[in-house]
Amino acid sequence: MIIAAEIPIKIRRNDTSRHTFTMTNIADDGTRLPFDLTDWVILGQAKHTESSLFFEFPITKIDAVNGKLGFSITKAIGETLLPLGSGDSITVPYEIQGTINSGTPIAQTGTFITGTFEVIADLVEDGRMKSGFEVDGFIFRNTQVNKITL
Questions:
Q1: Most buried by CB count within 10 Å: which residue of 10, 12, 56, 134?
Q2: Could you give the number of structural domains in the chain?
Q3: pTM above 0.85, yes or no
Q4: pLDDT of 104-118, one tens digit each?
């Protein structure tokens, strides 16, 4: 039986990030052993609702035999998740599942990881501070700086 780990994922819209996970089997005595992902098909999705896809994670098997998988979010991907100029962050539920056909006519599916996927709006856009952006009651505004040369 697969017991899903609950892991929140939080990214900043304009940043790059790498996320890695290691799946393990826990024996009756508590010993952790690698969970071989070689024959598993892995899919990760974040959704607004059950039928409304927000994002499909670009998951790769990093070391399948030792249960290691992951994905990277690039700046370009982050910008599609929360368009430039967006003032609000977004949080949606996600799951990472695996499916295997274990030689029987019925494939087995299990949820490995579940949680929330949050994309946070950033304060800096294209190298400059957002004008009039509010964070926790503080308003950030662009200011003009006049350089004086003596």
A1: 12
A2: 1
A3: no
A4: 667 788 999 999 999
